[in-house]
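Exam prep: given the inputs below (a chain plus F0G), describe the expected output before reading on.
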Amino acid sequence: MSVLRCPGCGAELDADSTAYACACGELLDVEHDAAELSRVNFEKGSGVWRFRALVDPAAREVVSLAEGDTPLLYSEPLARFAGLDDLSFKHEGRNPTGSFKDRGMTVAVSRAKLAGAKLLACASTGNTAASLAAYAAAAELPCVVLAPEKATALGKLSQAIAHGARTVLLRGDFDAGMKLVRAAADEGRVTLLNSANPWRIEGQKTIVFEILRERGWDPPDWIVFPAGNLGNCAAFGKALHEARDAGLIDRLPRLAAVQAAGAAPFAAAFERGFDELRPVQAETMATAIRIGAPVSYARAVRSIRATNGVVLAVDDEAIAAAKRAVDTAGLGAEPASCASLAGAARLVTDGTIERGASAVCVLTGHLLKDADANLAVHAENAPIAVTGADELSAMLSS
Ligand code: F0G
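Solution:
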């Protein structure tokens, strides 16, 4: 049997509880029965639910849109960009709604539906909103999503609208939206589907399980990923810990969490030895990670410490350069995703990652999520208008 456990005071709650935080204030974790971990069979099922035993062994009547099973891609030009021979990309943009959020959403929306939730809700920089909208629609449940009016990519916002979410444009940032939606959840008006919800973390662990399985359970030396609200950082550390406890791997990769310089409270705390989280007013072109007060800070700290990991910040220029490389290599990804490659390149330059090391970068969202960013980053490749054959042949011979 799985339970919900408070990592702060140790309190235990029934897994069927819809609480996401303990009375003491800490976010709850899902804790699985150790016996379940030893009974894993990953050759049955597919995607996220291939790992049911490590995610939600009691799951039934699952709300799924066939999430997970994303490719691990190798790219010669991107290996050169980072200065690494063994670098691959886990492309989470290949999920049903175009981001990794779908992995957590299939688990958390299935749980919410079973628990009889009436109204699902999230605050979002865009991708969570798009994903929740799709899974709520599939579950035939209503949902409300809150997204910053000024800094949400249109691709994401239009997805939420298309899937029928009640879409609220916030005259404020993500952090303000997070406070509003948590207050509504604490009053019992909505069920929270942000990554504060422990079942979201369970689903997102499968990014790591897939990387390990695709590599024949031979862990890479590094896993590098963009970090905003820190749900993935929390999930990746938990996944590695459990994979080791289940005897699937015998050593842990080091985690590298990459923030945008204008939204880097986690990187700043890392530099200070994780003394405390000091929230910031966030600003970056990578709007997905434009977050100043990450909710999963405490559990992300545990992940970094347990894996001898690092946290760093890269500026918008470095993110744009990495995006230019990712896009022109044919993979393509939204700006926040490309912070992973920018971070890997920086860690190779400063000697933290050795050139002979193996690394996996996680690309978190699809290229088409943020069309404005594509036009801005690739301005030198703006389309040319022609009116007839003469102009076209002049262009082709220039
Ligand atoms: N990359 C993308 C494309 C994202 O959308 C997010 C988060 C992250 C990285 C950061 O992941 O929060 O687990 O550290 N997007 C959230 C949202 C906040 O609302 O869509 P994290």
